[in-house]
Each structure stands twice: as structure tokens, then as C-alpha cells.
Design a protein that fits this description.
mainly alpha
């Protein structure tokens, strides 16, 4: 598969049990956007001869072609799989061993965190890993992760610290400053100590390269302050970028909607974008060859094992593709029932409180499945606007956007007070305190009534 989302995985729990390939492939396909999914499918079609596209299928692969392929593989005498499939050896073959060896960021983190994690903490680490976005940042609030896993915020913070201790350096950060700070851990040089202090307490000095202010604050020379700036500049602000996709030179954009909502005279229509599982199938030639080789003489066990591995890999891939589509469809159906007003009008006042945990329980899936299915993905609502999935899970966004809309239409000569805005929100069914209005204004950089009037 494309770099960043390989099928190869060797994560083992404390009981030394290998991860079920169906779970592994399902979770990896679930987190892909539609553009990434198309790339992954094309790669899988190229790598697995037992998988074929129905709409574009050519002549079935012949038995002679299959045997020729197997004979080419057998010529590699030092190949581990060739050794394992010898008639006098262990003929148990795992189809995952035929998959791509490129690891995703999630694979790398799982290998570092899950291999020796206590069983009671595995779920927490899995969700943390799934919450790391393509650039290496934690894309889900830690409070929400704690809620999903039913642990205290302190326990979630401790788990995050262990994640942040993993490679690549800076992974799991919640913002750029924290990412750069994490990369400077263990560096005892004076410029590193200055840089860490600035990243933690005064990022503006770094942004504006205010060497004189730094020199005064730490009683050092301007040259040492400049050295601290240069050290920060040498760091990697996005540790996940080294796992970019190949081919285009950059990660595919996820601005394309994964789900499209259309409101027609006959009702709602939901479209899940991407190639359907029904468009793919297991090669009939490979299925027939596997059936023909089953139970044959011992010398043919190697051929049977190879054919079976490709067929099983194709079956699991198609099943995972169908699971992804069905999960997105369940999510979309639930959003129509609970957030239909917003989806139809785009007005934030119609948003209802919803968390990923609540959604998971409503549609009967694991919370981590919702995180993978929605993280960094978009939907197209009935107005034609493309919005992030995150909108449906941000409890503060509704009030914040309603405050923006209220201030947009206020009389500039008589600005509304925070208390008056709170009253107007309550009339719309949103009850918040005056100080909360003030907090949302600060968060969105909106001025107070006195300053808006003077402006």
C-alpha cells in the first residue's frame, strides 16, 4: 500500500498473540480519506494478483501464469517465505507476510507502545495512537480521550507523556511550541535551555527573533540568543511529515468530502465516496487454483500456501473496504437524525451536543473506530458547504459561532454587552453565563462592547 498505511504489522500483546489481520486492515482502511483510499486500492491491485477490479477486469489469470509467478518466487533460495513453504518445513503461512513492509506513523508508534503495554492500558494507547494526525500532532482533545476510555485526565496525561517519549521526536504534541520543546529534551547546552524556556513561556520572542530581549532576560550575549533561535529553526515542526505519501510529493488533501448529504423532494440521500467493495472481487482463477491444490500431494503444499495467502489477503481487503463504507454510512445516518437541522441549513444554532463516545455507543462500534473514521475528514452538507467532522463534536463551537453571528448584525453605535448576548442566546435555547460569553469572545479574538464602540 501507499507509504504511511502499509498492511505489515507485528504488534504483539503481553500474551504474545498476533493482531488479527481483519482488525488491522479494517482499522487502517478506516482512517484513510477517499483520495488516499483510491491510492491504496490501486497499490493493492498491483501487489495482489488475486484481487481484481470487476468493472475493468480483463481476461482471468490463467493457471500457467499463476504457476509461473510461483516458480519465480521459488527461485529466491534465500527468501524466508520460500524456506517456510518448503514441503518438509512448516506449511503454516500468514498472508500478512506478503504485504508491503512500509510502516505508517501509527505502525511505528504501536510498535513502541503496545508491545509491552499492560493489558488494562492497551485501549488507551490504541486510541491515543489513532488520534495522532498525519503531521504527528494529537488531533483529539485529551479530555475527550479520557472520557472515551473512562480514565482520569491524570492517567490520560501520563499515557500521552509516554507517547511523546516515542520516536519521531515531537510526536503527540498538541501545538507547535510543545512539539519543538519535546525535541529539545536531553539537550543540556545553554542555547537549548534558553530555547526550551522561550518555547514554554515566551514564544513571541522566537517568532520575532528578539535577540536583545532574550539577552536581557537571561543575561547572555545577543550571539547566544541568536544561537538559541538557530537551534529552534533546525527542528522539525511536523514530525509526521517524514511519512508522506509517495508519487505526488505531498500528502493527499482531505478537503474532499467523504460523505455527501443531499436533501431531495423524496427525502435525504447519503453518498459515501470512494470505490465500493462491490467493484472488487477475488480472482476466479486463483480461487479455482486453490481448490484444485487443496489436499494434493505434499510437494504441492508450497504452491497451495502461496495461492491461499493471496486469496485470503484479497478477501480480507474487500471485507475491510465494505466495513469502512458501512461504518461511514451508519455515522451519516445518525448525523441526519441528530444534526439534521445543521446539515440542511448550515446554521450552527441547530447543532446538538454530541461526542465521539456517544456516537460510538449509539451505532454500536468501538470509540476508536469513530476516531479513525472521522479524524481529519470532511462532509458536504445540503448547502454544498464542506465542513470538518470535528464540527459535530465541538460542544463550544455552537455558542461561539452564534456569538459571531449576533455581533455581525449588531448596531455599531450601540454594541451589545456580554450579558445581553447571553440573554439572546438563552432565547435560542443556549444557556451560558456572561463570563462564558466573554471567554468565547477572547477565544475568537472579538472585542468587548466598549472597544467595539470605540473602534
Amino acid at each position: 500500500m501507499a507509504k504511511g498505511y502499509s498492511f505489515r504489522q507485528d504488534v504483539r500483546t503481553g500474551l504474545n498473540t498476533k493482531l488479527d489481520p481483519r482488525i488491522l486492515v479494517g482499522s487502517q482502511l478506516m482512517q484513510l480519506g477517499s483520495l488516499e483510499l483510491e491510492s491504496a486500492i490501486e497499490t493493492e491491485l498491483a501487489e495482489n494478483p488475486a484481487l481484481e477490479r470487476i468493472s475493468e477486469s480483463e481476461e482471468p489469470v490463467s493457471q500457467e501464469e499463476i504457476l509461473a509467478k510461483l516458480n519465480r518466487d521459488a527461485d529466491i533460495s534465500h527468501d524466508y517465505e520460500n524456506y517456510r513453504s518448503r514441503p518438509d518445513g512448516d506449511d503454516t503461512l500468514d498472508w500478512l507476510d506478503f504485504a508491503s513492509s512500509r510502516d505508517s506513523l501509527q505502525d511505528v508508534l504501536a510498535g513502541q507502545l503496545l508491545a509491552d503495554a499492560p493489558p488494562a492500558e492497551v485501549e488507551l494507547y490504541e486510541i491515543l495512537i489513532g488520534a495522532v494526525n498525519e503531521r504527528g500532532y494529537l488531533g483529539v482533545p485529551l479530555e475527550e480521550i479520557a472520557l472515551q476510555t473512562n480514565v482520569s485526565l491524570e492517567e490520560a496525561e501520563a499515557a500521552l507523556q509516554r507517547l511523546q517519549a516515542c520516536e519521531p521526536a515531537g510526536v503527540g504534541a498538541r501545538n507547535v511550541a510543545e512539539c519543538l520543546y519535546l525535541q529539545l529534551r536531553g539537550d543540556d547546552s545553554l542555547e537549548a535551555k534558553i530555547a526550551r524556556s522561550l518555547l514554554k513561556n515566551n514564544m513571541d520572542y522566537i517568532v520575532h527573533r528578539n535577540a536583545k530581549a532574550v539577552a536581557r532576560q537571561f543575561s547572555v550575549t545577543p550571539q547566544l540568543a541568536e544561537a538559541a533561535f538557530e537551534l529552534v529553526s533546525s527542528l522539525t515542526p511536523y514530525p509526521g511529515d517524514e511519512y508522506e505519501y509517495t508519487g505526488s510529493g505531498s500528502k493527499p488533501s482531505r478537503a474532499q468530502a467523504e460523505i455527501v448529504f443531499d436533501h431531495t423532494p423524496s427525502g435525504w440521500e447519503i453518498t459515501v465516496r470512494g470505490i465500493r467493495a462491490a467493484d472488487l472481487r477475488v480472482s476466479r482463477a486463483y480461487s479455482e487454483q486453490m481448490a484444485a491444490l487443496k489436499g494434493k500431494h505434499k510437494i504441492q503444499k508450497a504452491e497451495y500456501a502461496h495461492v491461499k495467502a493471496f486469496v485470503q489477503r484479497a478477501e480480507v481487503f474487500i471485507s475491510a473496504l465494505e466495513q469502512r463504507a458501512q461504518t461511514l454510512l451508519k455515522i451519516a445516518d445518525h448525523l441526519i437524525r441528530t444534526q439534521g437541522g445543521f446539515i440542511q441549513t448550515g446554521q450552527f444554532k441547530f447543532l446538538n451536543d454530541l461526542t465521539r463516545l456517544k456516537l460510538a455507543r449509539e451505532i454500536g462500534v468501538h470509540e476508536s473506530t469513530i476516531s479513525r473514521a472521522t479524524m481529519e475528514k470532511c462532509v458536504q452538507i445540503a448547502t454544498g458547504e464542506i465542513v470538518s467532522f470535528d464540527i459535530f463534536f465541538d460542544s463550544s463551537l455552537k455558542a461561539s459561532k452564534m456569538i459571531e453571528e449576533i455581533l455581525q448584525y449588531e448596531n455599531p453605535n450601540s454594541p451589545l454587552s456580554d450579558a445581553r448576548i447571553a440573554q439572546m442566546l438563552e432565547a435560542e435555547g443556549v444557556t451560558i453565563a456572561r463570563r462564558t460569553v466573554n471567554k468565547y469572545r477572547d477565544k475568537t479574538r472579538l472585542l468587548s462592547s466598549r472597544k467595539r464602540k470605540s473602534a
